Amino acid sequence: xxxxxxxxxxxxxxxxxxxxxxxxxxxxxxxxxxxxxxxxxxxxxxxxxxxxxxxxxxxxxxxxxxxxxxxxxxxxxxxxxxxxxxxxxxxxxxxxxxxxxxxxxxxxxxxxxxxxxxxxxxxxxxxxxxxxxxxxxxxxxxxxxxxxxxxxxxxxxxxxxxxx
Length: 164
Description:
The chain is of the alpha+beta class. The protein has helices at residues 69-75, 79-101, 105-112, 116-122, 132-141, 156-159, and strands spanning 3-9, 14-19, 23-27, 41-46, 54-59, 64-68.
């Protein structure tokens, strides 16, 4: 995903981003160098040095920072990003469990009822075409119990500034 355009909205106290996947807002309150009434945003732009995967802003005082798109997506609770994080965590645990299990790869493939190529994709942390269900099945074969806990978000986490 790339940032196509970004602008400062001083009235709302946010940066408004247009990306190839949609529109997002990112509040000034999450910034390290925060704009104020006397130190406004002088310039903001998609940063070409990051392949337009971040934006850079400068204040009138000369202070500024670069904010990566992942921070914006995380703030906006982008479902694709959250799914990717979950898949990555489960894959990391599955890789460790596979090494510790003593089971041969052939045995794991047989018990999963899948192909070798699909098995290797399950263990590839950079492949996101797999499902949580497939990883849970693999972890079960490897003697791991998966338990999900759903709990309320901590409201203070949305107010704390990020360290970009």
